[in-house]
Specification:
The chain has 310 residues and is an alpha+beta fold. The chain contains eleven helices and 13 strands. Strands 8, 9, 10, 11, 12 and 13 form a six-stranded antiparallel sheet that branches. A four-stranded antiparallel sheet has the order 4-7-5-6, with helices on one face. A hairpin with a 2-residue loop joins strand 8 (187-195) and strand 9. Helix 1 (25-41) crosses helix 11.
């Protein structure tokens, strides 16, 4: 994974687009400031642009040479921003319109994986209250209930019985998108960063919380990150290949993060793909990159290089 560019001037002026209007806005602003500082320290002519407050007009007025997209969630990670940049003819980091839209939608992602016989937990779509009993019968308990279009565990609940299922469905439905329940996988959680078509070292996540929720991701000091992840080398390579396969199927390019679980029988289960992962001091891709010998600044440089199409 050598550098493709050595001279920061070759990038031209770079807009680090952050913020947005999704539930993950605050996380995106933290990620964006970190990325902006890293690029500027390396001599890149970079500036911040808040996608919610500045928007397309600011993009047109300042007309950057390229965009580092670090807008998490809807409006920035779902193909909307990518489509606008395509229309403007501006190169940008990460995946294109289709891959971004598919990956942001957890439900459609699972449908794609199932169609290609990639392992993902069984699920049941919850469109109306009458679906809850069918879901409980078909999947049993415990369950995870998720809004299809949110990240950072917003709206996600672990459910142990029918009463909790009803409450979790109502909570997830507040986010204004499809809701589904997913079979609970009792096992170990891993994440695989992907950069430039290669999978970074796996990280095993350990939390005393019921699952790796918002608190465990961004606030708690009790979360443990294991890298090396503790798997045998051959097994880790298998899972890294699975992560790459999961991305290729969706058309994901540039960089991403794939979340997966290993159950008690050591079977892998794909959970989701993030095409604009976090870049905060609690984020996983920077940890995995560090284990591969890439510091944060160099990681940001490599991600910026993904705006250079082959």
């Amino acid at each position: 994974m050598g550098k493709r560019i050595d001279d920061p001037a070759a990038f031209g002026r770079v807009a680090v687009v952050m913020g947005g209007a999704a539930a993950e806005r605050d996380i995106s602003l933290i990620s964006g400031r970190a990325v902006l500082g890293a690029l500027q320290r390396q001599g890149v002519d970079a500036y911040a642009l808040d996608w919610r407050d500045d928007g397309l007009a600011a993009m047109l007025n300042r007309r950057p040479a390229r965009v580092f997209n670090i807008v998490h969630g809807r409006g920035g990670e779902d193909g909307v921003l990518q489509g606008a940049l395509e229309a403007l003819g501006l190169p940008y980091t990460g995946s294109g319109v289709l891959a971004s839209a598919l990956s942001m939608d957890k439900l459609r992602t699972k449908l794609c994986w199932k169609g290609a016989a990639l392992p993902t937990p069984a699920w049941h779509v919850l469109e109306k209250e009458a679906d809850l009993a069918d879901c409980a019968q078909s999947l049993g308990f415990p369950l995870m209930v998720k809004p299809s279009l949110e990240g950072s565990s917003f709206g996600i609940s672990r459910v142990a019985d029918a009463a909790q299922l009803a409450n979790a469905w109502r909570e997830a439905a507040r986010f204004g998108c499809d809701v589904f329940a997913e079979s609970w996988i009792d096992g170990r959680e891993y994440t695989a960063g992907v950069l430039g078509g290669e999978a970074l070292p796996l990280i095993r996540l350990e939390t005393p919380n019921q699952f790796y929720d918002f608190d465990a991701k961004y606030q708690a000091d009790t979360t443990r990150y294991h890298c090396p992840c503790g798997l045998e080398e051959a097994r880790e390579k298998e899972l890294r290949r699975l992560a790459l396969d999961a991305c290729r199927l969706l058309g994901v390019t540039g960089w991403a993060r794939v979340d997966l679980l290993l159950d008690a029988q050591e079977r892998p289960w794909l959970i989701e793909v993030n095409t604009v992962p976090g870049m905060t001091d609690h984020s996983l891709v920077p940890m995995a990159a560090q284990a591969a010998g890439l510091g944060f600044d160099e990681l940001c440089w490599r991600i910026l290089e993904t705006s250079l199409r082959p």
